[in-house]
Specification:
413 residues, alpha/beta, Rossmann fold, eight-stranded mixed sheet, 20 helices, 14 strands, globular
Amino acid sequence: MRIAFISYEFPPDTAFGGIATYVAQISRSLAAAGAEVEVFCGSPTKTEESVDEHGVRVTRIKVDRMVFPTAIVPAFIKRHRSKAFDVIEGPDFLAEARYVTRALPHLPYVVKLHTPFYFARKFGRFPYNREQFRNDIRLLWYVAKTRNVRALASQENPLFREERNHLLNADEIAAPSRAIANIIVRSWGADPQKISLVPYTYEPPPEMLAIPIETQTKRISFVGRLEWRKGVQDLAPAIPLILERHPDARFRFVGATGASPFAGMSMQDYLCSQLAKRHLERLEFTGKVPLHRVPHYLADTDICVFPSRWESFGFVVLEAMSAGRAVVCTGNGGMAELVDGGEYGLLVPPKSPRDIANRINYLLDNPSARHEIGRRARTEGLRRFTSSSVIPVQLQSYERAIARRAAALAHVG
């Protein structure tokens, strides 16, 4: 089977987050299973074609992300005419395969659910504040003065409609968790018959598996971008509650800082502004780090905390589990499924600093329980995400997409 992935994100040039990690892992796993795999991705620095050490052919184009969906079409068509693909997979986020699928309407395509831009904006929306109130007043004043009611409707980003239409027209929708599948059905009216549960693959690097489980560093680490949707603003109020009981605890934030609710203030600065000066010396901010450095930061961590307002999956949870770390995460999205409802980590409700503090204090008070959670997570919890478990399910998903497109074309013909 010849499989094409269309994704602006792909390591190392555009390794921005979970999409890049997913495409890298699944493309290599599929190639190892005997499929012919090509990846079409973006780069900030170069245009090139290459074959990596895993046998995956990679076509990179130097282009901005917002232009990528149109810019990749000529390169894709050239490769398809050279040797036809059987199926395309692209992300829901920004519907990056949409122009390729329009140019080649006969070609079956699968949309992989991560988190559409629409829902990322929705779940990451800042609380209503004075600045947004002023902007709304200006907009209403403009509408009243010009009677341009369309200005209100134009506040919706047209990309939201592109994402929804691209997803609804797919031959197959592959969901990594039940949580994101349910939201797509409920909010966008997706056909449940088209949706399959296909987890991400995760093959932990040896450096993760070599980390000793029984550490005693009293360091709590958050790994990910510092942004509202990731819930770091809910972790900040928990820090004093933890330091009251464990004054020698330390907190590390691994990842680039995003915006805060206040213009001109980064999320890192916002978090610091929410804490007393005496607490700041217990904090460490690494900034953005390359993927290969993550094991280094987890090696001297006791507990990982992921207080996201929403995640469809959460690769960082699997990374923490592979390192044998005890995980505290929210239970309202896909992360709860990764820790199997609390079997391989501790769950807290979203927006709950006191619950976060209580769970972390429990793990600091009980090293043996912490080590046992980490041990089970590494030895048992990761089995569901190995290539041998996921690849057969993934290939069946592609076969359904191919069959549906063939049936649709036969009906039209």
